[in-house]
Design a protein that fits this description.
heterodimer; A: 346 residues; mainly alpha; 16 helices; 70% helix; globular; B: 459 residues; two-stranded antiparallel ribbon; 19 helices; ND/Mrp_TM (chain A); NADH dehydrogenase (ubiquinone) activity (chain A); NADH_UbQ_OxRdtase_chain2 (chain A); transmembrane (chain A); NADH-ubiquinone oxidoreductase chain 2 (chain A)
């Protein structure tokens, strides 16, 4: 793509999310979402083939539906409150419709069906943007309307997402689908604590973005999109296997890595609010996620996958130097001792 | 406490910066020195604990376990030298790094004051152990073993996290030093029953309790020698240590909640001892013997009398040393014949008489011969369980008999009799192996002279 056009489109995506996050008028928020959606379609379709076309179409249809639902909720809110400012939502119906719309944008169950299919159809870099940047805008709206969200619906969607994210990823060998299901499960964790402490949602979002960025960059560096091609990394860059191991264990939420921090804080917050069974269930269902991460590490780092000498040289046109990778890896694995610093967020 | 933790962490740069011919020498020497530092903790002058800081403390219960942990690292390093000799240098350094990381987490676990910190470090010990088992084990079954190990332990311990946080909400602090003074009886309700279960299940899986022990034979058999040693000697004792700490907070539910687990342990110790009599795989036999000994510890902890706590602590230390020594002996067989089947390497006394002496001592301590500390532990547990209920003496007596039976069976099969013709070309015992056995046996025998240091905080 022409670099100037690509820059413009990328800037529009960024601008769209910024408008969503910084507006106080509901219409501007909707406009921000639409800008974001329209501008990301060319990015999703960077490679022009039927698979990306299908993925982009699915993405466009679901997100446009969600935007329309959002608009309806905004109008109902307008009818009941008489003003366009984003504060709490004044009508329970509007709140439910808005929560559903934002859940559709995030990919929470029962609106999660588009996430694996869209993520699989696009390139790794586009998938990266899809699973990290695109979650910021809907999450910021959820953060702002969090006092008026119907708790039952949100918690149901959260728990079902964790379940679906865990179970759905069990049968996958394609890395992008694994990351998509992991994203569904993490969104579930984030929305579960939204009503109790939105700060923890943001913390979880931050750490999730760091870990997902790390994972995607490790995949991009070895140009691997399937478990099979990832298992050849011991041949080419053995250090990457250790890094993949550490990051995957962190995503699974194992102490002493930083992925444990959001889970611990969320369990703490939920327990403080006297719900005990819910965090226990959520924690146990996160073990499903850990299972397929473990399977990935088994074929990548902990065993040597048999491969012939022919496969030692994969086509690699230039060595990709990803400067951001080392700091990201450090941050996505070693942040747990900094947990007491979270008191600055209060 | 930092005087032990920081040198252990610094063992990691030591390995990575050592030259090729110095890695084993450097790491073994410095880890032995670190173990000497930890010996000073055994001097506990008052009935109270030694408090080093708000975060670390040492207590007559945790000090012997700490000394055992630090003593075991040089032994693990010595035992691993042979099977790692053919690996490239980076992988050797990675292995030693894993062992050192595990050691650091274990030291911090045994001395943690805050129970959530204990939990995080308890879970953190899983990651290096998993990597050691899965990456350096020898058979394909190790993959399954690693998964069973990780998931059994995690399933048990996630409710523990929730339980600890809810206790923190109730009492305001989880610092162990405070809790022992603040202790109030837990009110009787259904949710407190679940709280009891949530707190104890993690340690029950780790011990392991008889019904939840499926991960143990897999993990012990598939792990390389250092993995087996640390699993048998220390990681099982983490469960016992955790149970001993947390039962102080869980009265009075323990009086009736403990019954199912007591029944499972009493029956399980007989079952697992009997299974030992039918094992063909040497490491599997030692693994099941671990389950049986740990079942005694579970019985002791759940009865909650001063004598039973003494027995539990003594038994943990004694079993740690004995089991680790048995695994080293089994490994010396494995390195020569590359098979764990017992009858393939029998009659070794003719070929390796000194090793036969070590086998004899290890088997004798395993069956709790007087005056070893194994006997002291078992005797205290048997006596206190008899006073709790007279009928348990039948099961305990049967267990002691069957333990003697399988220990002697193991000894006689591997050592006595005519040797098989295909092993007459095995290498003689290395000095390293003899030193390893001596270093295991010497503390065991010396402790029988002064067992009160391992009798725990109820002495």
């Amino acid at each position: 793509m022409n670099p100037l056009i690509f820059t413009t489109i990328l800037m529009t995506v960024l601008l769209g999310t910024m408008i969503v996050m910084m507006s106080s008028h509901w219409l501007m928020i909707w406009i921000g979402f639409e800008m974001n959606l329209l501008a990301i379609i060319p990015i999703l379709m960077k490679k022009y083939n039927p698979r990306t076309m299908e993925a982009s179409t699915k993405y466009f249809l679901t997100q446009a539906t969600a935007s329309m639902l959002l608009m309806m909720a905004i109008i109902i809110n307008l009818m009941h409150s008489g003003q366009w400012t984003i504060t709490k939502v004044f009508n329970p119906t509007a709140s439910i419709i808005m929560t559903s719309a934002l859940a559709m944008k995030l990919g929470l169950t029962p609106f999660h069906f588009w996430v694996p299919e869209v993520t699989q159809g696009i390139s790794l870099t586009s998938g990266l943007i899809l699973l990290t940047w695109q979650k910021l805008a809907p999450m910021s709206i959820l953060y702002q309307i969090s006092p008026s969200i119907n708790l039952n619906i949100l918690l149901t969607m959260a728990v079902l997402s964790i379940l679906v994210g865990g179970w759905g990823g069990l049968n996958q060998t394609q890395l992008r689908k694994i990351m998509a299901y992991s994203s569904i499960a993490h969104m579930g964790w984030m929305t579960a604590v939204l009503v109790y402490s939105p700060t923890l949602t943001m913390l979880n979002m931050l750490i999730y973005i760091m870990m997902t960025l790390t994972m995607f960059m490790l995949f991009i560096q070895s140009s691997s999109t399937t478990t099979l091609s990832l298992s050849h990394t011991w041949n080419k860059t053995p250090l990457t296997t250790t890094l993949i191991l550490i990051t995957l264990l962190s995503m699974g939420g194992l102490p002493p890595l930083s992925g444990f921090m959001p889970k611990w804080m969320i369990i703490q917050e939920l327990t403080k609010n006297s719900s005990i069974i819910l965090p226990t269930l959520m924690a146990i269902m996160a073990l499903l996620n850990l299972y397929f991460y473990m399977r990935l590490t088994y074929s990548t780092s902990l065993t040597m996958f048999p491969s012939t000498n022919n496969m030692k040289m994969k086509w690699q046109f230039e060595t990709k130097q990803i400067t951001l990778l080392p700091p990201l890896i450090v941050m996505s694995s070693l942040l747990l001792p900094l947990t007491p610093m979270l008191s600055i967020l209060d | 406490m930092l005087k032990i933790i920081i040198p252990t962490i610094m063992l990691m740069p030591l390995t990575w910066l050592s030259k090729k011919n110095m890695i084993w020498i450097n790491t073994t020497t410095y880890s032995l020195l670190i173990s000497l530092i930890s010996l000073s903790l055994l001097n506990q002058p008052s009935n109270n604990s030694l408090n080093f800081s708000l975060m670390f403390f040492s207590d007559p219960l945790s000090a012997p376990l700490l000394v055992l942990t630090t003593w075991l690292l040089p032994l693990m390093l010595m035992a691993s030298q042979h099977h790692l000799s053919k690996e490239p240098l980076t992988r050797k350094k990675l292995y030693i790094t894993m062992l050192t990381m595990l050691q650091t987490f274990l030291i911090m676990t045994f001395t943690a004051t805050e129970l959530i910190s204990f939990y995080i470090l308890f879970e953190a010990t899983l990651v290096p152990t998993l990597i050691i088992i899965t990456r350096w084990g020898n058979q394909t079954e190790r993959l399954n073993a690693g998964l069973y190990f990780l998931f059994y332990t995690l399933m048990g311990s996630l409710p523990l996290l929730v339980a600890l946080i809810s206790i923190q909400n109730l009492t305001g602090s989880l610092n162990f030093l405070l809790i022992q003074y603040w202790n109030q009886a837990l009110p009787d309700s259904w949710s407190n029953i679940f709280l009891w279960l949530a707190c104890m299940m993690a340690f029950m899986v780790k011990m392991p309790l008889y019904g939840l022990h499926l991960w143990l034979p897999k993990a012990h058999v598939e792990a390389p020698i250092a993995g087996s040693m640390v699993l048998a000697a220390i990681l099982l004792k983490l469960g016992g240590y955790g149970m001993l700490r947390i039962t102080t907070m869980l009265n009075p539910q323990t009086s009736f909640m403990a019954y199912p687990f007591l029944m499972l342990s009493l029956w399980g110790m007989i079952m697992t001892s009997s299974i030992c009599l039918r094992q063909t795989d040497l490491k599997s036999l030692i693994a099941y013997s671990s389950v049986s000994h740990m079942a005694l510890v579970i019985v002791a902890v759940l009865i909650q009398t001063p004598w039973s706590y003494m027995g539990a602590t003594a038994l943990m230390i004694a079993h740690g040393l004995t089991s680790s020594m048995l695994f080293c002996l089994a490994n010396s067989n494995y390195e020569r014949t590359h098979s764990r089947t017992m009858i393939l390497a029998r009659g070794l006394q003719t070929l390796l008489p000194l090793m036969a002496a070590w086998w004899l001592l290890a088997s004798l301590t395993n069956l709790a011969l007087p005056p070893s500390i194994n006997l002291i532990g078992e005797l205290f547990v048997v006596m206190s369980s008899f006073s709790w209920s007279n009928i348990t003496i039948i099961l305990m007596g049967a267990n002691i008999t069957i333990t003697a039976l399988y220990s002697l069976y193991m000894l006689i099969t591997t050592q006595r009799g005519k040797y098989t013709h295909h092993i007459n070309s095995i290498k003689p015992s290395f000095t390293r192996e003899n030193a390893l056995m001596a270093l295991h046996m010497t503390p065991l025998l010396l402790l029988s002279l002064n067992p009160k240091i391992i009798l725990g905080f109820t002495y």
